């Protein structure tokens, strides 16, 4: 069963889409079956993986409108073990079309439920807004990965996202957790970056990723060639950082599974009957 990770931050320009693309590609490079779902009307994750704009192609919009299944919308990518569901500009209108729709907050969750057993990770690239599209992604997700720049305004914006996550826990998805916070466009040569990293470590503790993503020209260039950095220049600092991030998240997932298995063993040893 896939772990569904929503890459979200309502603040634009923090490397959210870059993280979604390169994290998903790095999972795939680690021989892990991965699906990237583009939930952003700007479709940057789609174009960043080489998908040209096609008005007739099935997209995330069709999933939200329940006019197509996830299985029908999945497309292969140039990266082995990485598949994608592209976005479409019609997603802009989905915020209005979903207002009166039945189970409007659960459309994406319902669509992905039938294909979750095909993948180990499903990465959701959210738009830079706390709207119905992001709400659908957070309801569908097991956890949220928050990309942040090491700057003052980033600290201001994260409180609003954390408040949204808590409200979603209370109303729609009580199991939603924070996967981690990852520092992007990081330059450890500046005092500000070091201080922000220290503040975030104090606030988030182990939820702050050990891996940081540096400023890197190759990361910026790769989308114009329709490639993830690991395919465009696997030796670049940016590609290596995302590979390291993927390994860190895989390790976290393995530890969670081991802990859950240990609890089940203790319950079984105690003779306590459990129910699905």
From TrEMBL:
> One short Pfam family name for this protein?
AAA_31
Q: Return the protein name.
A: ParA family protein
Record PANTHER family:
P-LOOP CONTAINING NUCLEOSIDE TRIPHOSPHATE HYDROLASE (PTHR13696), PARA FAMILY PROTEIN CT_582 (PTHR13696:SF52)
Q: What is the lineage of its organism?
A: Bacteria, Pseudomonadati, Acidobacteriota, Terriglobia, Terriglobales
Which part of the chain is the AAA domain?
3-178
User: From which organism does this entry originate?
Assistant: Candidatus Korobacter versatilis
Matches recorded under InterPro entries: AAA_dom (IPR025669), DNA_Partitioning_ATPase (IPR050678), P-loop_NTPase (IPR027417)
């Amino acid at each position: 069963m896939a772990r569904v990770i929503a890459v979200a931050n309502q603040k634009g320009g923090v490397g959210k889409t870059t993280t979604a693309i390169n994290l998903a590609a790095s999972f795939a490079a680690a021989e892990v079956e991965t699906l990237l779902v583009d939930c952003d009307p700007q479709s940057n994750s789609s174009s960043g993986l080489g998908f040209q704009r096609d008005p007739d192609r099935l997209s995330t919009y069709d999933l939200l409108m329940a006019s197509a299944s996830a299985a029908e919308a999945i497309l292969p990518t140039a990266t082995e073990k990485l598949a994608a569901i592209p976005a479409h500009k019609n997603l802009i209108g989905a915020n209005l079309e979903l207002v009166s729709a039945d189970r409007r907050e659960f459309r994406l969750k319902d669509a992905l439920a039938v294909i979750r057993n095909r993948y180990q990770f499903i990465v959701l690239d959210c738009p830079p807004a706390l709207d119905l599209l992001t709400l659908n992604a957070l309801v569908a997700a097991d956890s949220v990965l928050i990309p942040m720049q090491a700057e003052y305004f980033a600290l201001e914006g994260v409180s609003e996202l954390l408040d949204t996550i808590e409200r979603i826990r209370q109303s729609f998805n009580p199991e939603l957790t924070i996967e981690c916070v990852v520092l992007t466009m990081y330059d450890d040569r500046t005092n500000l970056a070091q201080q922000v990293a220290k503040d975030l470590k104090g606030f988030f503790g182990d939820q702050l990723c050990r891996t940081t993503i540096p400023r890197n020209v190759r990361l910026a260039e790769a989308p114009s060639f329709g490639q993830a950095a690991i395919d465009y220049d696997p030796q670049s600092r940016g590609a290596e950082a995302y590979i390291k991030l993927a390994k860190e998240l895989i390790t976290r997932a393995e530890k969670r599974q081991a802990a859950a298995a240990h609890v089940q063993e203790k319950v079984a040893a105690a003779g306590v009957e459990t129910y699905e």
